[in-house]
Automatic annotation (TrEMBL), chain A:
The complex is composed of two ATP-binding proteins (CysA), two transmembrane proteins (CysT and CysW) and a solute-binding protein (CysP). NCBIfam families: 3a0106s02, permease_CysT. The gene is cysT. This is Sulfate transport system permease protein CysT. Belongs to the binding-protein-dependent transport system permease family. CysTW subfamily. It comes from Pseudomonas mangiferae. One of its GO terms (cellular component) is plasma membrane.
UniProtKB/TrEMBL annotation, chain B:
SUPFAM superfamilies: MetI-like (SSF161098). It is found in: Cell inner membrane. GO terms for cellular component: plasma membrane. This is Sulfate transport system permease protein CysW. Keywords: Cell inner membrane, Cell membrane, Membrane, Sulfate transport, Transmembrane, Transmembrane helix, Transport. It comes from Pseudomonas mangiferae.
UniProtKB/TrEMBL annotation, chain C:
Coiled coil: none annotated. It is found in: Periplasm. Keywords: Periplasm, Signal, Transport. The keyword Transport applies. It comes from Pseudomonas mangiferae. GO terms for biological process: sulfate transmembrane transport. Belongs to the prokaryotic sulfate-binding protein family. Residues 1-22 form the signal peptide. This is Sulfate ABC transporter substrate-binding protein. CDD domains: PBP2_CysP (cd01005). SUPFAM superfamilies: Periplasmic binding protein-like II. InterPro entries: Sulphate/thiosulphate_BS (IPR034408), Thiosulph/SO4-bd (IPR005669). Its main location: periplasm.
Length: 272, 286, 332
C-alpha cells in the first residue's frame, strides 16, 4: 500500500498505525457515536429536523455570517500579510506578534470583551448607536465576532507564500511597463490564490462552528440571530438528543466536505 | 544611472502614497479588531484598582480553576505532541493511498463545532450514553468530571502540532534521514539526532498554539463540565460564572489573567518563529 | 529518634485520614438565580448539621439554565439534590433518567417547594416609558428583555404569566396568542438564561423593561444600587414554584441520603425560610412571610396547576418543538 519516497526511511507502519489508533479513539469513534445516535431517526424524520424553518434560518445565519466574516478576513488578512511582508514601518513587529491573539485568547473572553465593546453602552457601540447602527445582538455583531476569532487564518496562510514570491518578477514586470494592477492580477494573484483559499476556507469552517465568542453578542432570537451551535444546545436542553445530533451531523458533513476539498485543492497545486 | 535601474528602484519602493495608505489601513484594522478588545478587558479588570484585580485571581475558586486548566494543558499537550510527530512523519515521509483523507481527518477537529466536540463524549460516556451503564457499574465518572474535560480539550487541540509539522517536514525531504541510515544509524537514533533537531522550532510553535487553545477552550469544555464550583470549572468557565454573578470586575480580572497567559504564549511563539527563520535562511541560500 | 519519627508519621497519617473521612460532600445542582441564596444557605446548613450530628458537610454548587442542569444530572452529573426552576424539569429526571420515583413532589411539604416567587417588571429609574401592566409592554417603542423559554425555566414562567394576563383580559386563547406574539416582537435579545437577561438589561443597558423573577429583580436592585432601577408589579402574575428533590439513585450510591434529606428539610425551618426571604424568595412559612410582608408587593397570582393543567400539559403545548412558542416565531 505504501510507496516510500525513499527505501531506507523506517517507521511507516508504526506512525501510521499510531496515528490511526489515536484518531480513531479520540475523534472517529466519538463522532461515529453521533452518527449512530442519528440512526434512531428515520430518513424522513432527519429531513424534517434539518429542514425545519428555525433550523434553516440558523443555517443561513451561521453559514452567511461565517462567509461574510471569511470574506472580510480575506481582505483584512491579505492587507495585514502584505504590509507585514513588504513594508518596514514602526510597530511592524508588534502587529506581527499579535495577529495570532485571537487564536490564543479564550473564546469566552473574546465574547464578553466584544459585547462590552459593541453593546449600545460600549466604546464602539456608543458611536454606532449615534449613527443609527446596531451592532451587538444583530447578524452584524455575529459577523464581527467571527471576524475577530478567525482573523489569523488568512493572514497566516498568505504571509509565508507572499514572502516566498521573488520580488524580481514583479520588478521585471514593472520594468516591462505593467501597471501595478496588472502586476497584481497576473503575477501575485495566481501565486497567492491557493493559500488565500485555504485561509478563507479554514476561517469559514471555524466560523460556522464557533460558539463561545458568539453566544454573548448574538441576541439568540429564533429565526433572526440564533446560530446553529446554539440550536444544538437548545435541542439538548429539551432532551432531544436525536434532534441535536441530526444538526450536528449536518454541520459535520458540511465541514468535512469543505476540508476535503481544501486538501485536494492543495495537493493538486503542490503536485505539479 | 540608467533608466532601467531607476524603474527597478521605484518599483522596489512602490508608490509612496499607496504604501502609506496601506500601512495606515493595516494599523487601523489592527487597532480596531485586536487592540480594542484587549484594551477593554484590561481596563474593565483594573476599574477598581490593582487590589481587587489581585483578589479576584487569588480567590480559592479561581485558583482551583487555574489548577484544572493547567492539568488539562499538561495532559493534552504532550499527548497531542506525540501524535503530531507520528502523524506528520507518516504523512510527510511516505506516499500512500488515502493520504488526503487522512490529512482531512487530522484537520477535522479544527472545524467541528466545539459544542459537538463536547456532545459526542456525553453521547459515549454520559449516564444515558453507549458506555454509561458499564461506567456507572464500575464507578467510573468521565463526563462532568476531570477526565471529560481533558478529553474535550484533547479533541479540540488534536490538529495543532501535526498541522505545523507536516508542511515543514515535507519541505525538508528525506535526504538527511537517508544519510543517517546509510551511515548505520537505527530508526530511533536517526529520529533523535537528525529529524528532531530539524523540526525543533516548528515543534515548539505547534506546542505553543496547542497550549493556547487548550487553555482557552470554552464551548466543548462547557458541555462536559457540569459547572461544579471549585471542582470542574476551568478558567474560561470561571470567567463566565463570575460574569453571571454581577462580578464584572472579577470576571474581567480572571479574563485578563488568561489574556496575559495568551500574550506570554505569543511571545514564546514569536521567539520560536524567529529562531526558525534564522535557521532556515542560510539553508535557503545554499 | 526513630520512634519520634514514627510517632510523627503516625500522627500525620491520622490527621490526613481524619480529614479525608470527616467531611461529607453534597452536590446541589440548581438553576441560575439561586447563586446568592444557596451561598448563604449552605453556610447556615453546614453549621446546623455540625451542631446536630457533629459531622462536617461541604456543599458544592452548580448553576446554569434549569433545563441544562436537569439534563446534566440525567447524563450523569452526580447531584445529591436538585433545586430547579420548575417541576417539569425535575419530572424529566424521573422520565428519562429513572433517578427519582414518580411521586417525588409529594415527599416534602407544599409540592416540595420551600419558597416561591413570581414574575415582575424591572424598569429604569423614574419609569420613563410609564410601564404599569402587561399591555404597556406591546406599546410602540418599548423594548422588552426576557430569556428564551426553550432554554430558561424563568422564561417559561414569564411566558405563562403573560399568557394568563392576556387570556383573562381578552378572553380567548387565540387573543392570548396574538398578545404574546406581539410581546415577543418587542424583544431584541433572547438570552439563554434568566441571569443572562438581567446582565443584558442592567449592565449592557438594553431595553426598557426586564420581565424577571421577583427575586432576580430585587437582587439586581441590591447589586446595582436602587438609584438606577425600580420594580413594577403587574396587575396579574403567576405563582412560580421552584421545587427541590433528593436524587435517590445518587444519594443511595454515595450513602448521603440522610444528610441530603436533612439539607432539603432545613429549607423549611425558620432559619432556612428567613434566608430565602432575605434573598427575595417568598417564604412558605406564614410566620416568616408575615415578617417580610413589607418586602413583597401584593398581587393576584394564577398557578400552573389550576390555570394551565400542570407542567405535564403546559410544557408540550407551549414550549416543545412545534408548540405555541415556535409558532409565534415562525409566523413572523
Amino acid at each position: 500500500m505504501s510507496r516510500r519516497i525513499s527505501p531506507v526511511i523506517p517507521g511507516f507502519g508504526l506512525t501510521l498505525g499510531y496515528t490511526l489508533v489515536y484518531l480513531s479513539l479520540l475523534v472517529l469513534i466519538p463522532l461515529g457515536a453521533m452518527f449512530l445516535k442519528t440512526t434512531q431517526l428515520s430518513w424522513e424524520q432527519f429531513w424534517a429536523i434539518v429542514t425545519a424553518p428555525r433550523v434553516l434560518a440558523a443555517l443561513r445565519l451561521s453559514f452567511g455570517a461565517a462567509l461574510a466574516a471569511a470574506v472580510l478576513n480575506g481582505i483584512i488578512g491579505t492587507l495585514l500579510a502584505w504590509v507585514l511582508v513588504r513594508y518596514e514601518f514602526p510597530g511592524r513587529r508588534i502587529i506581527d506578534a499579535m495577529v495570532d491573539l485571537p487564536f490564543a485568547l479564550p473564546t469566552a473572553v473574546a465574547g464578553i470583551a466584544l459585547t462590552a465593546l459593541y453593546a449600545p453602552s460600549g466604546l464602539v457601540g456608543r458611536f454606532a448607536t449615534e449613527l443609527g447602527l446596531k451592532i451587538a445582538y444583530t447578524p452584524l455583531g455575529i459577523t464581527l465576532a467571527l471576524t475577530f476569532v478567525t482573523l489569523p487564518f488568512v493572514a497566516r496562510t498568505v504571509q509565508p507564500v507572499l514572502a516566498d514570491i521573488p520580488r524580481e518578477i514583479e520588478e521585471a514586470a514593472a520594468c516591462l511597463g505593467a501597471r501595478p494592477l496588472q502586476v497584481f492580477r497576473h503575477i501575485l494573484l495566481p501565486a497567492l490564490l491557493p493559500a488565500w483559499l485555504t485561509g478563507f476556507a479554514l476561517a469559514f469552517a471555524r466560523g460556522v462552528g464557533e460558539y463561545g465568542s458568539v453566544i454573548f453578542i448574538a441576541g439568540n432570537m429564533p429565526m433572526k440571530t440564533e446560530i446553529l451551535p446554539l440550536l444544538i444546545m437548545v435541542k439538548l436542553d429539551q432532551y432531544d438528543y436525536a434532534g441535536a445530533t441530526a444538526i450536528g451531523v449536518l454541520m459535520l458533513v458540511v465541514s468535512f466536505i469543505l476540508l476535503l476539498l481544501i486538501n485536494l485543492l492543495q495537493r493538486r497545486i503542490e503536485a505539479p | 544611472m540608467t533608466s532601467a535601474t531607476l524603474t527597478v528602484a521605484a518599483a522596489r519602493r512602490g508608490n509612496p502614497w499607496a504604501r502609506r495608505a496601506l500601512i495606515l489601513a493595516a494599523w487601523l484594522a489592527f487597532a480596531l479588531f485586536l487592540l480594542l478588545p484587549l484594551f477593554v478587558v484590561l481596563s474593565e479588570a483594573l476599574k477598581q484598582g490593582l487590589g481587587t484585580f489581585v483578589d479576584a485571581i487569588l480567590e480559592p475558586d479561581a485558583l482551583s480553576a487555574l489548577k484544572l486548566t493547567v492539568l488539562a494543558v499538561l495532559i493534552s499537550v504532550p499527548l497531542n505532541l506525540v501524535f503530531g510527530v507520528a502523524a506528520a512523519w507518516c504523512v510527510s515521509k511516505f506516499e500512500f493511498r488515502g493520504k488526503s483523507l487522512l490529512v482531512t481527518l487530522i484537520d477535522l477537529p479544527f472545524s467541528v463545532s466545539p459544542v459537538i466536540a463536547g456532545l459526542i463524549y456525553v453521547l459515549l460516556f454520559g449516564a444515558q450514553g453507549y458506555f454509561g451503564e458499564w461506567l456507572s457499574d464500575h464507578d467510573i465518572q468521565i463526563v462532568f468530571a476531570v477526565p471529560g474535560i481533558v478529553l474535550a480539550t484533547l479533541f479540540v487541540t488534536v490538529p495543532f502540532v501535526a498541522r505545523e509539522l507536516i508542511p515543514l517536514m515535507q519541505e525538508q525531504g528525506t535526504q538527511e534521514e537517508e544519510a543517517a541510515r546509510l551511515l548505520g544509524a537505527n530508526g530511533w537514533q536517526m529520529f533523535w539526532h537528525v529529524t528532531l533537531p530539524n523540526i525543533r522550532w516548528g515543534l515548539i510553535y505547534g506546542v505553543v498554539l496547542c497550549t493556547a487553545r487548550a487553555m482557552g477552550e470554552f464551548g466543548a469544555v462547557s458541555v462536559v463540565s457540569g459547572h461544579i464550583r471549585g471542582v470542574t470549572n476551568t478558567l474560561p468557565l470561571h470567567v463566565e460564572i463570575l460574569y453571571n454573578e454581577y462580578n464584572h470586575v472579577a470576571a474581567f480580572s480572571v479574563a485578563s489573567l488568561l489574556l496575559l497567559l495568551a500574550l506570554v504564549i505569543l511571545l514564546l511563539k514569536q521567539w520560536s518563529e524567529s529562531r526558525m527563520s534564522r535557521l532556515n535562511t542560510p539553508a535557503d541560500e545554499e | 529518634m526513630s520512634i519520634r519519627r514514627f510517632a510523627l508519621a503516625a500522627l500525620a497519617a491520622a490527621l490526613l485520614a481524619g480529614e479525608a473521612s470527616a467531611a461529607t460532600e453534597l452536590l446541589n445542582v440548581s438553576y441560575d438565580p439561586t447563586r446568592e441564596l444557596y451561598q448563604e444557605y449552605n453556610a447556615a446548613f453546614a453549621k446546623h448539621w455540625k451542631q446536630e450530628s457533629g459531622e462536617d458537610v461541604k456543599i458544592q454548587q452548580s448553576h446554569g439554565g434549569s433545563g441544562k442542569q436537569a439534563r446534566s444530572v440525567i447524563d450523569g452529573l452526580k447531584a445529591d439534590v436538585v433545586t430547579l426552576a420548575l417541576a417539569g424539569d425535575i419530572d424529566e429526571l424521573q422520565k428519562l433518567g429513572k433517578l427519582i420515583p414518580a411521586d417525588w413532589q409529594t415527599r416534602l411539604p407544599q409540592n416540595s417547594t420551600p419558597y416561591t416567587s413570581t414574575i415582575v417588571f424591572l424598569v429604569r429609574k423614574g419609569n420613563p416609558k410609564g410601564i404599569k401592566d402587561w399591555n404597556d409592554l406591546t406599546r410602540d417603542g418599548v423594548e422588552v428583555i426576557t430569556p428564551n423559554p426553550k432554554t430558561s425555566g424563568g422564561a417559561r414562567w414569564n411566558f405563562l404569566a403573560a399568557w394568563a394576563w392576556a387570556k383573562k383580559t381578552y378572553g380567548s386563547d387565540a387573543k392570548a396568542q396574538a398578545y404574546v406574539q406581539a410581546l415577543y416582537k418587542h424583544v431584541p435579545v433572547l438570552d439563554t438564561g434568566a441571569r443572562g437577561s438581567t446582565i443584558t438589561f442592567v449592565n449592557n443597558n438594553i431595553g426598557d423593561v426586564l420581565v424577571a423573577w421577583e427575586n432576580e429583580a430585587f437582587l439586581a436592585l441590591k447589586e446595582q444600587g436602587g438609584d438606577n432601577f425600580e420594580i413594577v408589579a403587574p396587575s396579574l402574575s403567576i405563582l412560580a414554584e421552584p421545587p427541590v428533590s433528593v436524587v435517590d439513585k445518587n444519594v443511595d450510591k454515595k450513602g448521603t441520603r440522610k444528610v441530603a434529606e436533612a439539607y432539603l428539610q432545613y429549607l423549611y425551618s425558620d432559619e432556612g425560610q428567613r434566608i430565602a426571604a432575605k434573598n427575595f424568595y417568598r417564604p412558605r412559612n406564614e410566620k416568616i412571610a408575615a415578617e417580610f410582608a413589607q418586602q413583597f408587593p401584593n398581587l393576584e397570582l394564577v398557578t400552573v396547576d389550576k390555570d394551565f393543567d400542570g407542567w405535564k400539559s403546559a410544557q408540550p403545548r407551549f414550549f416543545d418543538d412545534g408548540g405555541v412558542f415556535d409558532q409565534i416565531y415562525q409566523a413572523q
